[in-house]
Amino acid sequence: MKYRILIPTLLMSAICTAAAFALDKTQVSRNSPQALAQQSAVVEGANNFYQSDKVTMQRVTFKNQYNMQVVGNLFIPKNLDRNAKNPAIIVGHPMGAVKEQSSNLYAQKLAEQGFVTLSLDLSFWGESEGQPRNVVSPDIYAEDFSAAVDFLGTQSFVDRNRIGVLGICGSGSFVISAAKIDPRLKAIATVSMYDMGAASRNGLRHSATLEQRKQAIAEAAEQRYMEFTGGETKYTSGTVHELNENSTPIEREFYDFYRTPRGEYTPKGSSPKLTTHPTLTSNVKFLNFYPFNDIETISPRPMLFITGVDAHSREFSEDAYKRAAEPKELYIVAKAGHVDLYDRVNLIPWDKLQSFFNQHLSR
Questions:
Q1: Distance, CA of 229 to CA of 232 (rounded, Å)
Q2: How far is the C-alpha of 94 from the C-alpha of 102, rounded, in Å?
């Protein structure tokens, strides 16, 4: 398979896993002293690969309306009454990640509280279908969440009128997009949300210029000719593969999760060189993605936006909260940054999530 990681110079690196900072394409050997030093950090409370002994996990597959197979992990409390109709929650992973990164953790923790939960790989990522791999397609991502409702709502032990959804990082914007046109999603929560459209158009804190945006579009358009005629696929943004003295704080934050044993995960058939990196030609599709437009139409279904007080992505949760109609809540976690809420079980507000879904998915 031919591929090339492109060093992004523009706002297209505003993808969730690199957050508007340039990508160094050099791959560090996992056995080099530098790599070992970079992977030695221990983060308090980090437990991305948590495995609960209180729930059972079942790998499930279902089709979305594009006839693509979506793969997920279904978590069921061991003490669940399967003869009753139970509430369920769908959990979406960060953009560029897979269900084994953050969403399995959240799904298990919520299943321990009595919910049936489903973490899924978005199309083109992880185990789900979609070619070429690592494609950006916000419309299909949103459809995957509705397809997950189709699946859960037809299970004998799930109450189809009590299905909620939780989106982490980029999936926060995808679940909002889905909820605007799917009223079966009865309660919507986001954690460390990225508005992938705004981040791609404007960069963080509106740091990108129109000229930069136009240049990024031109680069992607020219690359289409290359790939149409059999040239190698180019990938962009994502998480850096090594750190140096010039690495930014946000690059370091994502590296510490995606490039160390804390959260590193390579799906079968992929390569560590490609994980988190979307294709260059598809990444521009985020420029047409406006998930917060008409967000107020989700009301009266409730929305909860959780963000860290120090999160570089905080602006997106605050913007969504401002635009949304009641009932809504913005919950800011003390001493937490963006990636902290991926897996630091000592900081993630489990009680808030439990009370939100208990309240709004009750009979």
A1: 9
A2: 8
As a whole number of Å, the end-to-end CA separation of the chain is 51
- DSSP per position, 2-40: -EEE----SGGGGSTTT-S-PPP-PPPPTTSHHHHHHT-
In terms of C-beta density within 10 A (0-12 exposed, 13-18 middle, 19 or more buried), how is residue 28 classed? Answer: middle
- Per-residue pLDDT tens, the chain, 363 aa: give them: 455 555 443 344 444 433 333 333 333 333 333 443 344 358 999 999 999 999 999 999 999 999 999 999 999 999 999 999 999 999 999 999 999 999 999 999 999 999 999 999 999 999 999 999 999 999 999 999 999 999 999 999 999 999 999 999 999 999 999 999 999 999 999 999 999 999 999 988 888 899 999 999 999 999 999 999 999 999 998 999 999 999 999 999 999 999 999 999 999 999 999 999 999 999 999 999 999 999 999 999 999 999 999 999 999 999 999 999 999 999 999 999 999 999 999 999 999 999 999 999 987
The pTM for the full model equals: 0.91
Residue partners of 238: CB distance under 8 A and separation at least 6: 5, 15, 17, 18, 23, 96, 275, 276, 277, 278
Helices (DSSP H) in 100-195: which residue ranges? 103-111, 138-153, 171-181
Nearest to 319 by CA among 238, 209, 199, 186: 199
